[in-house]
Amino acid sequence: MYIIETERLKLLTKCTVLNGEFTYYESGNIDILNLNKDVNCNGFLIRDKNDQNIGHITVLFKREPYELSVGVKEEYREKGYMKEALGACIEWIFNNCNTDFVTGLKGAIVPEASEKLLNYYHFIRKPEAHYDCRVLYKDVFFSFYHK
Length: 147
Description:
Blueprint: E1 2-5, E2 9-13, E3 16-18, E4 21-23, E5 29-30, E6 39-40, E7 43-48, E8 53-60, E9 67-72, H1 81-96, E10 101-105, H2 111-120, E11 124-125, E12 130-132, E13 135-137, E14 141-145
């Protein structure tokens, strides 16, 4: 288990980097937020310093490399936890993986908050639309280039 620690959080993952490439941990699905649905474990589980699961950052490679999708339990929203976690995750990816580019996905549950978070880290909205399994994704992809 790899751990990234911030001032208030721990980001846990069983994913690794092999020759500069992010590799998934193959364990099936886990219920990352203790909800009634399975969430793929590819990415980071976010815990507070009391080891309470508070959210996740999933790393996908569906439409773009390093697509970051985030989620946080409702009671932990608007407290800066996801800002802290996403910053640590982005820094870790740029320091450990052969990429200078990540994509942030605007959330569907609280789109205003996720767009505000992506804007904080200077992600830029990608104007083109993407189709995936006959679903149109428009206005959800944001790009970030490492300087």
